[in-house]
Design brief:
38 residues; mainly alpha; 1 helix; rod-shaped
């Protein structure tokens, strides 16, 4: 049970980290597209 808890926390942290990275990439891409349009 404890192992499952630790694993779920690790997975949550990993997902949060990957989501932040994806969000940063999306924001940079959005800025690039906006600068292209102007």
């Amino acid at each position: 049970m404890l192992l499952y808890l630790v694993l779920s926390v690790f997975v949550t942290m990993f997902m949060d980290l990957s989501m932040r990275t994806a969000l940063k990439k999306a924001m940079k891409l959005n800025e690039f597209l906006v600068s292209k349009e102007i």
